[in-house]
Amino acid sequence: MSDNYDAVYQAVRSKWGYIDSGVLMDRIVQNFDFSHQFTCAIESIGYEHCRPSAIMRPKLSTDGNQWCALYGDNLQDGVAGFGDSPAKAMQDFDKSWWESLK
Fold first, then answer.
1. 35 burial class (0-12, 13-18, 19+ CB within 10 angstroms)?
2. Can you give the residue range of the structural domain that contains 85?
């Protein structure tokens, strides 16, 4: 078993020794389809710019030990989101924006 393994290893190693890594990378890049990644990136950017927190630009402030994103004059008349970070407060604001009045 060891003799067969060594012969196969040496044969494979000898073939790889003659490959130009620059040419190999060029072929990989030429054959790789970047359009899917580009499309996903554009969709992600579009989503972020269409979020209610991006469009309405609520005021950020601290409320106790949390951040508050508030659109409106007060909590009773406006839309608010709370979180441990400004980003989490904005995410909660986006969620609250779509909720119906109870």
1. exposed
2. 29-102
Per-residue pLDDT of the chain (102 residues; tens, 9 = 90+): 555 666 666 666 665 556 666 776 777 777 777 777 778 888 888 888 899 999 999 999 999 999 999 999 999 999 999 999 999 999 999 999 999 987
The C-alpha atoms of residue 61 and residue 59 are separated, in whole angstroms, by 7
Q: Tokens representing 76?
A: 């009773």
Assigned domain for 58 exists = yes
Tokens of 71: 């659109």
55 lies in some domain: yes
* Residue 60 falls inside a structural domain: yes
Distances (CA, A) of 30 to 20, 33, 46: 16, 8, 28
Pairwise CA distance, residues 85 & 59, whole Å: 14
- Does residue 3 form part of some domain? no
